[in-house]
Hints:
Elements: E1 2-6, H1 10-13, H2 20-27, E2 32-36, E3 50-51, E4 61-62, H3 64-77, E5 83-93, H4 96-102, E6 107-112, H5 120-126, E7 129-132, H6 142-153, E8 186-187, E9 190-191, H7 201-219, H8 221-227, H9 231-246
Parallel strand pairs: 1-2, 1-6, 5-6, 5-7
Antiparallel strand pairs: 3-4, 8-9
Amino acid sequence: MRFDVITLFPELVRPVAEYGVTGRAGEQGLFELHTWNPRRWGTGVHQAVDDRPYGGGPGMVMQYAPLAAALAAVREADPRLVRVIALTPQGRPLEQAMLRRLVQCPRVALLCGRYEGIDERLLEAEVDEEWSLGDYVLSGGELAAMVVIDGCARLLPGALGHADSADQDSFTGGLLDCPHYTRPEVIDGRTVPAELLTGHHARIEHWRRREALGRTWERRPDLLARCLPGAEDAALLDEYRGLRRRSGGRRDTDD
């Protein structure tokens, strides 16, 4: 998989491919990262890429021509079809399912917005989708591009140490992940749930599914509403609620 990032700050984006899971994936050749600075196609002594907005108002707007030229260079660099995504506050909020679809694309170009935004005509003519990290504003799209690269890289076969790791993440299947524990078994009187110590795979999976449903119900009911749990999951959720009531609202750790 190849990522091409159009950004005024390529030095900000490149480190995402140098550390951790993404660093290892890059070393294994699972993905490539290329950056393109639109100032290369800017105008004047300062290689300007922005200008004042029509209609007045504060700030500047990224110009059509430098970004269009950068995208043309991206397309010429590799014959494979490229999907162009602009990272903007007006974009669709990022979800795990979107990353799973994107990782099927051999080439992705990520266009990082800056200033007050990008000339709308560029978005209409050159961009396939607009994505956002959420309902807030950052100084630019670079952090969002890094999030997309990281989220995709860990889904590539061979990127994670265990083949099932990505399939057990939060949002896989639409739910939050269940709680996790490691050694020691007791910390300040808090114990690991008994089910996780049994070695009984069916009981462990029962506990994990129940806790994932319960955590989603408590923290992200909007996700649970989308999942439309079946009868088996509904029974597990009822079980979770009953345990919570009996424990006075504290997380059950010893069923």
